Amino acid sequence: NSLLENEDFVQAATNTITLYTQPLPSNNTRESWDMMKDAIKTVSIIMAKRINTRRRHREHSLEQTLKIAEEEGTLQEPQNLELQTELEEIRQHRYRGAQIRTRFADIPDEKPKQQRRSLEHS
Description:
The protein has 122 residues and is an all-alpha fold. It contains four helices and no strands.
């Protein structure tokens, strides 16, 4: 998971876990556990949005910079080649995310459900 590669996320998740486990709850442990899971989920969503927003801004900035470099004829200079590589990495990351989110198409169906069988026979 790319969130686990982000130091800010790891720190936020660690702080959240520490908040819910220090001191360790002595009663209602199930409720405390559920509250901690919800808090971690919320932190994950917030951090993912922040990271993606930064990534989109960076992608837009790179595209604009490279467009100007192309107009000026300096696209092949070393610093612009590095920017092209960074832009490609951002796009590959987005592509991998889309692949992961649509992975259900790659998972074979075990057995047809009754509803699907009835639709196939109608």
